[in-house]
């Protein structure tokens, strides 16, 4: 087993007033040659957007982009004609393919929004752009892995498709609950909330551990926890 530990406080940080962003991997003004990616996972940003603020229209190409709200709601508008609000419990997937533009905005007058955005390098480039969004029931991930995203050509029922042999799952763990995760590729475990013990390492809120060269890992929650698992090919 090989593992790499990324503590929360080692992430890159950007504070623009209207936006506070933590970058697990090199992004924008944060460039760290030792933190470029974990396999095909290129970006994992943890963004907090202030009320009535947001990202103006900007382009993407040949990237699988997944957005997961942690609290608050984020309005989305894109060049494919989609105009939606993404709320807690929902997951949004965009396959940028040949190219698209979109904007993201916090419409609330009083409350900030926190969301995770992941970029995964595609298996196939220049596909037709696609947008999908779905609500995932909280009860279906209590002490079990709920698959949010899976490969388009091997799509797991109920999950959202992307153009890569990657799987994104979430699990809500009760204190002292122990489970196993079976790796398909390399797995990046990002702890949204709580505290867990995995691969002989204690992981706390917003810490992460990447694990490769093993078939499965045991995970034990030491506190009530919410865990995101990004299982991606390692190049």
Automatic annotation (TrEMBL):
Q: Which domain of life is it from?
A: Bacteria
Q: Which Gene3D superfamilies match?
A: Jelly Rolls (2.60.120.10)
Cofactor(s) listed in the protein's UniProt record: Fe cation
SUPFAM superfamilies under this entry?
RmlC-like cupins
Gene Ontology molecular functions:
metal ion binding
Entry-linked Pfam families: Pirin, Pirin_C_2
Bound how, and how many: what does the cofactor note say? Binds 1 Fe cation per subunit.
What range(s) does the Pirin N-terminal domain occupy?
12-120
Q: Which UniProt keywords apply?
A: Iron, Metal-binding
**Quercetin 2,3-dioxygenase C-terminal cupin domain ranges (all copies):** 148-232
Q: Where does Fe cation bind?
A: 58, 60, 102, 104
Q: To which protein family does this belong?
A: Belongs to the pirin family.
Its protein name is Pirin family protein
């Amino acid at each position: 087993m090989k593992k790499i530990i990324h503590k929360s406080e080692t992430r890159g940080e950007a504070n623009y007033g209207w936006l506070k962003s933590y970058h697990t991997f090199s992004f924008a003004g944060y460039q760290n040659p030792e933190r470029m990616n974990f396999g095909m996972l290129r970006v994992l940003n943890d963004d907090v957007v202030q009320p009535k603020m947001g990202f103006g229209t900007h382009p993407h190409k040949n990237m699988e982009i997944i957005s997961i709200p942690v609290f608050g709601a984020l309005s989305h508008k894109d060049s494919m004609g989609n105009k939606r609000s993404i709320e807690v419990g929902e997951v949004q997937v965009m396959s940028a393919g040949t190219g698209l533009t979109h904007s993201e905005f916090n419409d609330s007058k009083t409350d900030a929004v926190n969301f995770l955005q992941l970029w995964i390098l595609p298996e196939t480039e220049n596909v037709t752009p696609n947008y999908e969004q779905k609500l995932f029931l909280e009860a279906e991930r209590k002490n079990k892995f709920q698959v949010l995203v899976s490969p388009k050509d091997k799509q797991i029922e109920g999950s959202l498709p992307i153009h890569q042999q990657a799987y994104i799952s979430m699990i809500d763990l009760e204190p002292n609950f122990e489970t196993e995760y079976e790796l398909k590729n390399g797995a990046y475990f990002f702890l949204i909330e709580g505290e867990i013990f995995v691969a002989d390492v204690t992981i706390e809120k917003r810490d992460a551990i990447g694990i490769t060269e093993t078939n499965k890992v045991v995970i034990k929650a030491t506190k009530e926890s919410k865990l995101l698992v990004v299982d991606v090919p390692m190049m």
